[in-house]
Each structure stands twice: as structure tokens, then as C-alpha cells.
Amino acid sequence: TRVSSVCSAMARHAGPRLPLIVKNLIPMLSSVFDSQRITTTAFFAELLNSNVVNDLILLETMMDNITGRQKDPCILVRMLALRGLGNISSGSPEKVRKHGTKLLASMVNGMDDKDDPHNLVALEAMSSLSKLLDHLEERDIQSMLLHIAIRIRPFFDSEQPDLRQSSIVLFGNLTKFSEGDCEAFFEQILNGLVTLLLHLQDPKPEVVRACKFALRMCGPSMGCEGLCDMFLNHLREDRSLHYGEFMNNVCKHLMQSYPEMLNRLILTNLFYFKSNWVDIRAAAPMFIGFLVLHVDEDHCQQVDLDQLISGK
User: Fold this and answer.
1) Which pTM value belongs to this model?
2) Distance CA 275, CA 158 (A)
3) Taking the CB of residue 35, how many other CB atoms lie within 10 A of it?
4) What are the pLDDT digits (tens) for 79-111?
5) What would you measure as the largest C-alpha separation in the chain, in angstroms?
6) How many other CB atoms are there within 10 angstroms of residue 195's CB atom?
7) What sections of the protein cross the membrane (predicted)?
8) Alpha-carbon dihedral 176, 182, 184, 185, rounded to 10 degrees
9) φ, ψ of residue 58 in degrees (nearest 5)
10) Burial track 36-59 (b if 16+ CB lie within 10 A, e otherwise)
11) Domain ranges of the chain
């Protein structure tokens, strides 16, 4: 917080002196002391939030140096480096497109960080990528779309609410770029659909809001006008949701449009019978009940009754 305040003040009042300050700080990014690398990276990350670095032709220098911190042994340095790269979307949005490939690669590498036990780096990568998406070239995103969607999917059920929220919001944002590879991304929507619908009962309001947003974004790609309209009308952020009635209607549309999906949807719901969250545990059998209620007779043979009764 102190670094943030100092940096904001310097961006406003010390513009002409910043090039020399940045030049003198760059060696600190390679310091043997974690504290010096953390403070310098934090300073650069905050500075990238301001357009002053663009005005002073510092953006490329700072970006190159902060990108070099992605392999730092200190998790906090790696996290702050990604925050700084994400901040370019606020400080110099017009330059994001030019450096899109490099920025996108940094975010994907952050999500794949192997030495990140609490997923702090992955969380920052997802949050920063959501900020950058609107400024990136569509073709750059489409080349990485499936990799990102598959990579973030496990975070939907994370015990950490901020990871659930960030991954679900990012997934919603990614749907804007799915047109070029619609069939493959549609498969990812189907893979996440049950989870997003069940997490409308998440104990954390911010995760519920994220699910509403993601489902509204997914609706147009689902090829079912009734479902799309339901998501847009019933999942507005300011509207309370009668979950049981909503799910009854959702399942009716699902079984009218995708009856062949019945067994797949049931199997995914069975996984949540053992969820740690009681409301989600309760929602899963209700979901299955509505699916079976609305499927026509011809598709009933998909259901493995023994598996359903045993709840495994």
C-alpha cells in the first residue's frame, strides 16, 4: 500500500525525474535480497498503471525488465510482475495490442506456474488477463483460447473463493472470442455448464455474481434461444433468483435442445453429491431430478439407474 501511494504521487508530481529513478532501480530487480526485488517490482507494477510511463517512453524498458522477473524464485515477485503487466491495460491500453503476444504468453505461463502452492501467481494471471482481453488482438487470443479454458477449469471448484471468482469471470470473458473455434469452445462450455449452474448456490456472493456473468456470456454460444433468454433475463446482477424454478426451466430447455447430453450432465452432477458446500450438495440431485423429468422416453435409456441410486 505504501509503495502504491508513493508511486501514485511520483507519477503525478515527479514525471521528469522518473527516467533516472527507473534507471537506478533496474539493478535492484536482480538483487540477492527478496525484499529489494519485491519492493522494486511492486514500484514498477504501480508505475505501469499510469500513462506517465508512456509519455516518458519508459514502457518498453519497464515491460522488458518486469517480464524478466517471471522466473524469480520468490512467488511474490512473480505475482507482482504479472500485476504490472496487467496494469498496462490501464496505464497504456493503446500499447497492449502491440505487445499482445508477449503479454498473453506471460499470463499463460503464470497460470502454469508449477511452484505456486497457494495459486497466488495463477490468481494474478487470471485477473490480469481479464483486464487485458479487451485490448488484445482477437487472433492472438484465439490461438490460446482452448489452452486457457482447459487450464482454468479446475479453479471453478477451488476452496479459495477468489480463485473461483477470477477463473469463472475469465471464462465468461473468453466466450467473446470463441467464434473462430466455436465447436471446440462449445465443448468447453458444456464441460463447465453444470459447475456454473450449481455454483449459483455458492456460499460466496462474489462467486454467484461471477457465475451469473459467465452464464450470460455463454448463452449466445449455446445455440438455444430459450436458454440464452433465460440466462439474460434471470441472471442479471441486480435480480434475485428463485433457484428451483429457474433450474426446472433450464433443464426443460437443455433436454429439448441436447437430449443426448443427459448422461453426461447426470455424471457431472453425481460428482457434486460429495461437495463440501451443503447448498451445492443439495442442488445437484435436484438438477438431476429436473433433467430426468423433462427428457423424452427415447433418451431415458441413457440413464444408469444403479449408478444414480448409489450416488457414485
Assistant:
1) 0.90
2) 11
3) 10
4) 999 999 999 999 889 999 999 999 999 999 999
5) 75
6) 21
7) none
8) 20
9) -105, -10
10) ebbbbbbbbbbbbbbbbbbebebb
11) 1-136, 159-311
What's the Cα-to-Cα distance from 296 to each of 174, 220, 257, rounded to whole Å?
33, 25, 11
Q: How many CA atoms lie within 13 A of 301 on its CB side?
A: 1
pLDDT at 19: 83
Asked if 168 contacts 196 with a C-beta cutoff of 8 angstroms, the reply is: yes
Taking the C-alpha atoms of residue 94 and residue 206, their distance in angstroms, rounded to an integer, is 30
- 196-220 tens-digit pLDDT: 999 999 999 999 999 999 999 999 8
C-alpha cell at 271: 460428482
The three cell numbers locating residue 97: 495490442
